[in-house]
Design brief:
The chain is built from four helices and three strands. The chain has one domain: Metalloproteases ("zincins"), catalytic domain (Zincin-like, 2-Layer Sandwich), CATH 3.30.2010. The structure holds zinc ion. The site of zinc ion has 7 residues, from α3. The site of zinc ion (ZN) has 7 residues, from α3.
């Protein structure tokens, strides 16, 4: 990160990690917060997030750290963490946004929508 984080960004991040903890309970996988790596990058501005299963890493767009994007940060984190859960549990052969992924989103309280601009590329290793 090139700039110091805005205090509201720190609060948003703390809420995001708390939410991840809560989802991990709903998903019956409480090891999730300490298993999944979360990396913010500034590379591809049009992609909000990707899930890299082989390295247990979710990449999130650094634009999500802007305070006005907090709800998008939470939803994108949930979206990508749901990918990780679904691929880990059901294998890489499933449809990325199929019923397995949708079920994780719903259990976390989200309507499973694929809204993220250019989010087609998940960087999933096959
Ligand atoms: Zn997706």
């Amino acid at each position: 990160m090139s700039q110091p984080l805005h205090p509201r960004t720190k609060e948003a991040l703390a809420r995001a990690f708390q939410a991840l903890k809560e989802w991990s309970v709903l998903w019956n996988y409480t090891a999730l917060p300490r298993t999944l790596n979360i990396v913010f990058n500034e590379a591809e501005a049009s992609v909000m997030g990707t899930c890299h299963v082989a390295s247990d890493t979710v990449f999130l767009n650094a634009n999500l750290l802007q305070p006005r994007n907090e709800s998008l940060l939470l939803e994108t984190l949930c979206h990508e963490a749901s990918h990780w859960m679904a691929f880990r549990r059901f294998g890489l052969g499933i449809e990325p946004h199929g019923p397995e992924w949708q079920a994780y989103m719903r259990r976390a309280g989200y309507e499973p929508r694929v809204f993220l601009h250019g989010e087609g590329a998940h960087g999933v290793d096959h």
